[in-house]
C-alpha cells in the first residue's frame, strides 16, 4: 500500500545546532503511528516540517506522494493538525472558531455540530474562548484539527490538559475515525495512553530515528516474561543460575520469555532438583519499559 506520509533523510538545523539527522520513516493509510522520544528529541520539529512551517536543509517530505515544502502546501489540504498550543482568539466563541475554519460551505453547519457532539464540548462552545480552561482550549484545538475530515491528522501531545473522561472520549474518537480510514501521527509522553491507541511507533532520540516498529513486534521482541513462585525460591534461583539461565534483577523470579516450550523445560529442571512451581504469571512489558530499554540499548536503524 502506498504511504500517506513519507519522511526521507530529513536534516534540519537551527543555527549551528543540528536538530534532525537523516530522519526517515513512513506512515501507511489507516494506521495510528506514535512518535515518541525524550524531551528535545525533535518530535515537534518533525511535525512542523511536515506541515511546511519551515524550511529544512535536506531530505523529502511526501504527503500522498506529493512533496511538501515551505512554498508548496497544496497536499496539506488533506491534513489536520494540532501542534503545541492551539491558536485561539480570546474574544471569539468556540463555535465561531469552528465557523472560521470550516472549509466546506455546504456541509459547514452539519460538520461543526458533528464535531461538537463527538468531542462533547456542547456545554461551552458558545462561550468566549478567553474563559476556557486548558483542557477546554485543547479540545477546541482538537475539534479544529478534525473539523474538515482530514485524511491525515497530526497531533502533538493531544492529551495535554485533558481529564480521564475526556482522554477516553478522545481515544474512542481516534479509534472510530481510524476505522473509517483516517490516519494519525501522534506524539505523546503519556505512554500508557499511547499504547492503547497506536499500531506502530517511531522512536526518536537526539534527532535520530532509533526504531520504527509495530506494537506487536515491539512487545514480542522486548517484553514477555515468566514470573515464577516456587516451593523454594532461593534454591530455584541457584538452580537457574547454575544452568546459566539469566534472571532479571527483581525480587521475584523473573525470566525473559524466549520460546513457547521454555516453561516446560523450566518446570522439568526445577522438578529434577525437588523444587515445585506453585504459580506462573505471564507478564508483558509495557510501552514505557520497552521504550526505556530501546533508549538504553540504542542502535540507530539503517
Ligand atoms: N525555533 C527554534 N530555534 C532553535 N532551536 C529550536 C527551535 N525549535 C526547536 N529547537 C531545538 O530543537 C530540538 C528539538 O526540539 P523539539 O521541540 O522538536 O523537541 P520535542 O521532541 O518535541 O521535545 P518535547 O518532548 O520536549 O516537546 C531542541 O533541542 C530544541 O531546543
Automatic annotation (TrEMBL):
Looking up PROSITE patterns in the UniProt record yields:
ABC_TRANSPORTER_1, ABC_TRANSPORTER_2
SMART domains to which the protein is assigned, alphabetical: AAA
Keyword Kinase in the entry? The reply is no
Could you tell me the keywords of this UniProt record? Answer: ATP-binding, Nucleotide-binding, Transport
Q: Which GO terms describe its molecular function?
A: ATP binding; ATP hydrolysis activity
Q: Where is the ABC transporter domain?
A: 5-231
Q: Which Pfam families match?
A: ABC_tran
The keyword ATP-binding appears for this protein: yes
Domain of life of the source:
Bacteria
The record's comment on protein family reads: Belongs to the ABC transporter superfamily.
Record protein name field: ABC transporter, ATP-binding protein
Amino acid at each position: 500500500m502506498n504511504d500517506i506520509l513519507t519522511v526521507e533523510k530529513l536534516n534540519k538545523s537551527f543555527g549551528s545546532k543540528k536538530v534532525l539527522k537523516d530522519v526517515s520513516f513512513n506512515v501507511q493509510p489507516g494506521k495510528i503511528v506514535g512518535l515518541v522520544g525524550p524531551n528535545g528529541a525533535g518530535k515537534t520539529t518533525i511535525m512542523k516540517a511536515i506541515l511546511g512551517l519551515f524550511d529544512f536543509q535536506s531530505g523529502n517530505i511526501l504527503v500522498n506522494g506529493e512533496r511538501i515544502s515551505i512554498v508548496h502546501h497544496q497536499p496539506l489540504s488533506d491534513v489536520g493538525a494540532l501542534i503545541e498550543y492551539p491558536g485561539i482568539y480570546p474574544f471569539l466563541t468556540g463555535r465561531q472558531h469552528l465557523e472560521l475554519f470550516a472549509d466546506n460551505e455546504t456541509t459547514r453547519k452539519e460538520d461543526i455540530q458533528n464535531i461538537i457532539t463527538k468531542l462533547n464540548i456542547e456545554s461551552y462552545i458558545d462561550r468566549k474562548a478567553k474563559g476556557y480552561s486548558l483542557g477546554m482550549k485543547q479540545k477546541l484545538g482538537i475539534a479544529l484539527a478534525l473539523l474538515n475530515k482530514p485524511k491525515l491528522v497530526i497531533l502533538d501531545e493531544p492529551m495535554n490538559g485533558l481529564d480521564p473522561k475526556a482522554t477516553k472520549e478522545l481515544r474512542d474518537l481516534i479509534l472510530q475515525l481510524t476505522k473509517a480510514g483516517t490516519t494519525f501521527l501522534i506524539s505523546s509522553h503519556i505512554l500508557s495512553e499511547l499504547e492503547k491507541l497506536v499500531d506502530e511507533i517511531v522512536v526518536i532520540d537526539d534527532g535520530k530515528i532509533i526504531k520504527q516498529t509495530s506494537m506487536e513486534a515491539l512487545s514480542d521482541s522486548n517484553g514477555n516474561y515468566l514470573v515464577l513462585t516456587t516451593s523454594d525460591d532461593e534454591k530455584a534461583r541457584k538452580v537457574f543460575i547454575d544452568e546459566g539461565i539469566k534472571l532479571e534483577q527483581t525480587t521475584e523470579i523473573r525470566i525473559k520469555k524466549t520460546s513457547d516450550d521454555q516453561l516446560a523445560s523450566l518446570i522439568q529442571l526445577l522438578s529434577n532438583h525437588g523444587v515445585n512451581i506453585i504459580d506462573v504469571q505471564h507478564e508483558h512489558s509495557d510501552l514505557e519499559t520497552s521504550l526505556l530499554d530501546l533508549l538504553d540499548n540504542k542502535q540507530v536503524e539503517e
